[in-house]
Amino acid sequence: MDIQLKRGLLDICVLAAIKNKASYGYKIIKDMKPYIELSESTLYTILKRLETANMLTVHTAEHGGRLRKYYHITPKGLERIDFFKNEWKEIMSIYRFITKEDVADE
Amino acid sequence: MNKQEFLAQLGKGLLGLPQEDLVERIAFYSEMIDDRMEEGLSESEAVSEIGPVNSVVAQILADTPPTKLVKKQIEPPRALKAWEIVLIVLGSPIWISLLITFIAIIIAAYIAVWSVIVTLWSIEGSFVACSLGGILSGILFACNGNALTAVAIISIGLVCAGLSIFMLYICKTATKGAFMLTKAPMLWAKKHLIKRGA
Fold it and tell me: Taking the domain A3-105, which CATH number applies?
């Protein structure tokens, strides 16, 4: 997939991974793996960016004798997902336009 | 490679980052390795899944805005070494609880010392009250013509007054001592900080 396109989608995917329930780093990567690959350092950068944009909050909790960071989505993060869904409708109409051209050419 | 080696090399590679970023990155990768091991991977498998240290370092540095790297150059040279940060991160469950215990002990010691002071002052207060009460009630008895009782009570009052003067001296000395005791660790900490800063 195109790098620019992937970059835009990854933010939404990370938000989607914590949408229903707070999650932690490794679980986010694991949950996304069947759909889209992302490395630890990319995830770190995305989490930082989303935190700065107030789309998620971070809470540290004790787990099995060590500390683990949990990421919680905020109302703003949920809004971002909804916004993306609407955007996608536009993209789909563009997609239809593109594929229609293909047919006309043949 | 085991986890500690990985984190130490990572820390070494990221020394150009501001310290708080470095600590956070190491904690992040430490958590990632721990979570993989919890899934049943061995330590070396978990580390190798993260990828070679060099490429992890390269990607992190590529993601870091140059302003951060430049800012780091301007910062004062005293910084924790990579292995110190690894130890702090790995040992955090232990040292946090130790630190809390240590603070609790110091607070308990202060409470103990100051409760002795409070006790001494309340004894002093009761001596003063006894002497005032004794002399006043002695005068009342005297007015009623009960001379023998009056003399006895007034003399008890005077004894209390004497004791209260003696006690006042003890109280003052003890309070001074307690203040010194409270100040001493503060002074020590301040001196230590100044030495470090110089």
Answer: 1.10.10.10
Tell me the whole-structure pTM to 2 decimals. Answer: 0.56
Q: What are phi and psi of B69, to 5 degrees?
A: -70, -35
Rounded to the nearest 5 percent, the helix, strand and coil shares of chain B are 85, 0, 15
- Residue A6 vs residues A3, A35, A96: alpha-carbon distances, Å: 5, 11, 20
Helix, strand or coil, per DSSP, at residue A72: strand
CB contact under 8 A, A67 and B60: no
Q: Pick B36's closest partner by Cβ from A26, A42, A66.
A: A26
Closest Cβ–Cβ partner in B34, B50, B93 for A40: B50
Nearest CA-CA distance, residue B129 and chain A, Å? 56
**Which residue out of A43, A47, A66 would a mutagenesis test of the B interface target, given it has the greatest number of B Cβ atoms within 10 Å?**
A66
Where in chain A are the domains?
Answer: 3-105
Q: Do A64 and B38 touch (CB under 8 A)?
A: yes
- Render pLDDT for A4-27 as a digit per residue (tens, 0 to 9): 788 888 999 999 999 999 999 999
Mean pLDDT by 10 residues, chain B (198 residues): 90 87 91 91 90 89 78 62 80 82 90 91 92 88 85 89 90 88 77 60
Distance from CA of A102 to the nearest CA of B (A): 38
A101 class by beta-carbon count within 10 Å (0-12 exposed, 13-18 middle, 19+ buried): exposed
In degrees and rounded to multiples of 5, residue B65 shows phi and psi of -65, 140
CA angle centred on B185, ends B179 and B191, rounded to 5°: 120
Which candidate, B40, B32, B39, places its Cα nearest to that of B3?
Answer: B32
